[in-house]
Write a structure and sequence with these properties.
It comes from Paractinoplanes atraurantiacus. By secondary structure, this protein is of the alpha+beta class. The protein is built from eight helices and five strands, in the order ααααααββααβββ. It has a domain of 127 residues: Winged helix-like DNA-binding domain superfamily/Winged helix DNA-binding domain (Arc Repressor Mutant, subunit A). The chain is 44% helix and 12% strand. The strands form two sheets. Strands 3-5-4 form a three-stranded mixed beta sheet, with no helix packed on it.
Length: 185
């Protein structure tokens, strides 16, 4: 797959109602119909612009002019309706408490792309949020697929934008991102 193919897949998202619409304008109208009002709407737009980045509560407070408890309630509501997902901070040292701020990702990259007003062509431009939308897309797909599997860890996988699966150690593979939604023939 090319970078442009990835861009088209990212901004289309994964909601069935959106993926069945081939026309970008019709799909955009669908996303626009998912409305949020007032403060919540501003928070959604800000989270879309910062998707897959570390989210410090203080930065949201200053950007939105809202109190921390209000932001906390709004974030909880957005998580409960599965619009965003919180990826907790972590540490490589198991004995150390994870102190990093969490990342927030949009459960559907198409909604995030619509919120920041980028289509498949615009997301490829320099300075566009291709990287953060790709990270959101990959994390969302992985978390979705984790719920499908009851098995224990059996291999290590690194995702990349290449076209072939490559071994790089015992039970370690570099796998194309496109393998998240395509099945080998």
């Amino acid at each position: 797959m090319t970078r442009a193919d990835y861009a088209a897949r990212i901004v289309r998202g994964g909601l069935p109602e959106a993926t069945t619409r081939d026309d970008d304008r019709r799909r955009g109208r669908f996303f626009d119909d998912i409305q949020h009002k007032g403060e919540l709407r501003k928070l959604v737009c800000l989270l879309a612009a910062r998707s897959a980045t570390l989210i410090a509560a203080g930065s949201l407070e200053s950007s939105l002019g809202l109190s921390r408890p209000t932001i906390k309630r709004h974030l909880q509501a957005l998580e409960e309706i599965f619009l965003v997902k919180r990826i907790p901070g972590w540490s490589r040292n198991l004995g150390t408490k994870a102190t990093a701020a969490p990342k927030m990702i949009f459960v559907d990259s198409g909604i995030a792309a619509n919120e920041v007003a980028v289509d498949a062509r615009a997301v490829l431009r320099p300075g566009a949020p291709f990287g953060s939308l790709l990270e959101s897309f990959v994390l969302s797909e992985l978390s979705r697929q984790l719920t499908w599997s009851e098995q224990h860890f059996v291999a290590g996988v690194v995702l990349y934008t290449g076209t072939s699966t490559l071994p790089f150690g015992d039970k370690l593979r570099a796998v194309p991102v496109s393998a998240l939604w395509q099945v080998a023939a």
